[in-house]
Structure formats: structure tokens, C-alpha cells
Design goal:
3 helices; 6 strands; alpha+beta; DUF4468 domain-containing protein; about 30% helix; 6-stranded antiparallel beta sheet; DUF4468
Length: about 140
């Protein structure tokens, strides 16, 4: 299996137990991306893997034809030793309506796709930041 890791981060959650980290991550996934497909959900090992989609809309400009770009990704969250590691991998552009997948590395090489690739990078980093704020900095009620 060749899965390119696009982004990864390891976060220390202090004194939070594995089961709480896992529960918070699973709760975040269900709230932030309810349409994501769950691939692995194992509270014993602390592994959570989902497959999701991001849509980027680039307005038409002098330098860009603009358009709507759809990407798929796989988010893996591994919980252990009061930490979690989140990885975004297999980021691919979904070409056409039922279309074929184009790896992010190939997609972002084309000049006309630079704006969409930059916007995607910002959204992926924001996704990891949101996960961190909802797992590490979770506010119980």
C-alpha cells in the first residue's frame, strides 16, 4: 500500500487517558465531518481512521480560470501514551463527476492548479488545528 502522508502532527494531551483522547477524536469527527466514512474505529487500540472530502472554490481572475475542485483524504488518528498522532494521507483530486483520482503531487504541479492547491493546504492545516482544539483543549460541560 503506498499512502503518501500529506500532513502529520503529534499532540501531547497532558494527563488525559487514551480512552478520553479517543472519545474526543471520535466526537470531533462526527461533529465536524458527519459525511466522512469511518474505516477503522477501535477504542481498544485507540485507532480511528476516516475518509473525507474537501471542496475548494476558486473564483475566476486574470490569472485563473477558477472552478470548483473536490479532494478526498484519509484522516488517521492514533492514540497512545497520553498523546495522539493525526495524519492526513492519500490526498487526491477527484476529477469529473465520477472521475478518476489524481494524486495531490501531480495536481499541484500544474500552474493553473496552484491557487486551489494553496487553498487546500490551508484547509488541511485548519482541519488538524481544529482537531487539536477539540481533543487537547476539550472543555467538558
Amino acid at each position: 500500500m503506498s499512502s503518501k502522508i500529506a500532513y502529520t502532527e503529534t499532540v501531547d494531551c497532558g494527563s488525559v487517558s487514551l480512552i478520553d483522547i479517543f472519545r474526543r477524536a471520535r466526537l470531533w469527527v462526527s461533529q465536524s465531518a458527519p459525511d466522512n466514512k469511518t474505516l477503522v474505529d477501535d477504542k481498544e487500540t485507540g485507532d480511528l481512521v476516516t475518509q473525507g472530502h474537501i471542496t475548494i472554490t476558486v473564483p475566476r481572475s486574470e490569472n485563473s480560470a477558477g472552478g470548483v475542485y473536490k479532494f478526498s483524504y484519509v484522516l488517521s488518528v492514533e492514540c497512545a501514551n497520553r498523546k495522539y498522532r493525526a495524519s492526513l494521507a492519500n490526498v487526491e483530486y477527484q476529477e469529473g463527476s465520477g472521475g478518476r483520482s489524481v494524486p495531490l503531487e501531480v495536481f499541484s504541479q500544474k500552474n493553473e492548479n496552484k491557487t486551489a492547491a494553496t487553498e487546500l493546504e490551508a484547509k488541511l492545516k485548519a482541519l488538524l488545528a481544529d482537531l487539536q482544539s477539540n481533543v487537547k483543549d476539550y472543555k467538558p460541560f
